[in-house]
């Protein structure tokens, strides 16, 4: 059994990375972690050049990553949410798994888990539900490829404005937009997966769930 975990977050050892790794570790299986920012991957060109070959015509790292997904027994995909949507690298990665679809449905039946990190608090009024949107962006891929979606991990991450140096003065600061007019960089603090115990537990439980799913599948 081998599980592939992918993170679209370009930040070094980010919340997204650590959550994906937490899920992977809890599967107890052989795993591989991929940081998408270390690879070159364009979005799908919609040329249908992959229909006969199940391989993409684009000569970047997309085919290498698709091959890893094809060989994996389960898939964990994590991203962050610029402008309240799944990030571009994660989206491009999912699009580039399209060659695995034709005639064979190579991802069909495999278990999948989504991870999303966003800065918007879950109870924030008047802002889009960023984590929900991020998870949906990944979940829809898994559903449409006939995978077994096991669930999601939603992490409260950090606004770039908290570390840009102008978070308390900038007229466009997200600090006040997301946390109210009285909020400051200091009052928000830094959010980490490790201080969100329920979220970390969800990641571990989902990993264990993937392990059990694959064990049941092997017995069937
Ligand atoms: C260009 C940009 C735009 C962003 N826009 C949003 C946003 O609209 N909503 C949100 O919740 N977070 C937004 N974020 C914050 C990211 O979701 C946040 O950086 C994320 O928590 C980082 O995840 P990480 O800890 O895994 O690196 C934005 C970040 C960047 C870099």
The CATH architecture term of the largest domain is 3-Layer(aba) Sandwich
User: Could you say which structural class the secondary elements and strand pairing correspond to?
Assistant: alpha/beta
User: How many strand elements?
Assistant: 5
CATH topology of the largest domain: Rossmann fold
H/E element sequence: EHEHEHEHEHHH
Spatial strand order of the main sheet: 2-1-3-4-5
What Rg do the Cα atoms give? 18 Å
What's the story with the biggest beta sheet?
5 strands, parallel
Q: Could you list the spans in which at least 5 consecutive residues all have pLDDT below 50?
A: none
Beta-strand portion reads 15-25%
> CA-to-CA gap between the ends?
15 Å
| Number of alpha- plus pi-helical segments | 7
Helices and strands, with pairings:
Blueprint: E1 2-7, H1 15-27, E2 30-35, H2 62-71, E3 74-80, H3 88-95, E4 111-118, H4 130-144, E5 148-156, H5 174-179, H6 185-188, H7 197-219
Parallel strand pairs: 1-2, 1-3, 3-4, 4-5
Helix pairs in contact: 1-7
Structure characterization notes:
The protein has seven helices and five strands; from the N terminus they run βαβαβαβαβααα. The chain is α/β, with parallel strands linked by helices and 220 residues long. α4 links the parallel β4 and β5. The protein is globular, with a radius of gyration of 18 Å. Flavin mononucleotide (FMN) binds at residues 9, 11, 14-16, 80-84, 117-120, 130, 157-160.
């Amino acid at each position: 059994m081998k599980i592939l975990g992918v993170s679209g977050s370009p930040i070094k050892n980010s919340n997204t990375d650590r959550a994906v790794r937490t899920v992977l570790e809890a599967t107890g299986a052989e795993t591989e972690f991929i940081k998408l920012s270390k690879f070159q991957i364009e979005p799908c060109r919609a040329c249908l050049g992959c229909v006969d070959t199940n391989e993409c015509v684009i000569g970047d790292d997309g085919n290498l990553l698709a091959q890893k997904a094809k060989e994996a027994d389960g898939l964990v995909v994590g991203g962050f949410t610029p402008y309240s949507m799944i990030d571009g690298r994660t989206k491009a990665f999912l699009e580039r798994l399209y060659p695995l679809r034709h005639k064979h449905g190579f991802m069909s039946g495999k278990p999948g888990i989504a991870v999303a990190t966003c800065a918007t608090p879950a109870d924030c009024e008047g802002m889009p539900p960023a984590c929900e949107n991020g998870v949906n962006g990944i979940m829809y891929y898994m559903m449409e490829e006939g995978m077994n979606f096991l669930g999601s991990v939603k992490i409260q991450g950090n606004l770039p404005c908290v570390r840009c140096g102008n978070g308390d003065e900038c007229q466009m600061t997200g600090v006040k937009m997301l946390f109210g007019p009285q909020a400051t960089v200091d009052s928000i603090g830094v959010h980490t997966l490790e201080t969100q115990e329920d979220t970390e537990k969800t990641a571990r439980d989902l990993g264990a769930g993937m392990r059990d799913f694959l064990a049941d599948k092997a017995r069937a």
